[in-house]
Amino acid sequence: MDDYTDIIVEENDGVALVKLNRPQSLNAMGGTMMADIVSYLGSLNRGDYRIRAVVLTGEGRAFCAGGDVTGFPGVNPDRQRPAWRRSRSETSAILALRNCDVPIIGAINGYAVGGGFGLALGTDFRICADDAIFQVSQIKRGITPDVGLPYLLQAAVGTQRALEIIATARRVNAQEALALGLVLEVAPKDQLVARALEIARGVASGPPLAIAAAKRLVYTPHNDDLARVEEMTGMLVGKLFATADGIEGARSFMEKREPVFTGR
Q: 18 - beta bridge partners?
C-alpha cells in the first residue's frame, strides 16, 4: 500500500478505514488530501478485492470543512488561475468515489460543509454523528456550490429542497439530514466509526464482483450527467472567484464578518 500525506488508511479483514487527515484546518481541501483520495480509491480497482468496503471519515472534530479559503483569489491573488482550469484532484474526487468498484460508507463526523458536503454525498451511503452539520457554505463566499453538490444534493432531496438549502446556505443538522434522506441513520458521535465499520463488514461479506457490478449499474444512468455538471461548475466557480462578490465572500470569511454582496 502506498504512503499518503493527508489521509490515513487502516486496512483490516477486507475493510478500509480512510480518515481525512488535515485536522488543523478541519480537513479543508488542501495539501494532497483530494489527490490522495483519488489515488487510494483507484488502487482498489485492480481486481484483487483485498478491500471489499471502505469507511470514509474525518480525523478530529470535522468530516471536511470544504475549500481552503486561504487559497481563494480574494484572499491570495497570487494563486488565481484561469477561469476554465480547476485542480484535477478536486474535479476527480467525486468521480473517483463513483467509479470505485468498492462500496464506500460515509461516516460523517462534525462539519461537512461546502465541498465537504459534496464529498459526503459522493459516498454510496452515509451515517452521521448526532452533532453533524451540513451546509452549502460556498454561497456565503460568493461562489456557486462545487464538488458535485449541485447534482448530488438535488438527487438526494429533490430540486425544490436542494435549491432552498443552496440559496439560504442554512445549516442542516443530523436529525434533519436523516429526515431528508441525506443519511441512513444517526449515531452517537463516540460510536459513529464503530457503527460504520459494522455496516462495512456486512457489505464486505457479500460477493464483491456482484456488488461492484450493481454499483456500476446503479450509477450508469447518472455518471455522464455528473461529469458534465462538474465540468461546467469548474468554469463558473473560476469566473465567480474574480467577481466583486467572490472577493468579498473570501475576505469577509477571513475578517470574521457577514459578507455584503452587491451583485458585481
A: 9, 56
Backbone φ and ψ of 34, nearest 5°: -65, -40
DSSP collapsed to 3 states, 33-86: HHHHHHHHHHHCCCCCCCCCEEEEEECCCEEECCECHHHCCCCCHHHCCCCCCC
Give me the number of domains the chain comprises.
1
By the 10 Å C-beta count (0-12 exposed, 13-18 middle, 19+ buried), 221 is classed as exposed
Cβ–Cβ < 8 Å for 137, 116: no
Q: Is residue 200 part of a domain?
A: no
In a domain, 89, yes or no: yes
Domain-located, residue 143: yes
Residue 18 domain flag? yes
Q: Which domain holds residue 100?
A: 7-190
The CB density around residue 49, as the number of other CB atoms within 10 Å, is 17
The pLDDT tens digits along the chain (264 residues) read: 578 999 999 999 999 999 999 999 999 999 999 999 999 999 999 999 999 999 999 999 999 999 877 767 666 665 555 444 444 445 589 999 999 999 999 999 999 999 999 999 999 999 999 999 999 999 999 999 999 999 999 999 999 999 999 999 999 999 999 999 999 999 999 999 999 999 999 999 999 999 999 999 999 988 788 888 888 888 888 889 889 999 999 899 889 899 999 999
Q: 193 pairs with which residues across the strands?
A: none
The CATH number linked to 126 is: 3.90.226.10
Question: pTM of the entire structure?
Answer: 0.90
At residue 108, φ and ψ (nearest 5 deg) are: -90, 110
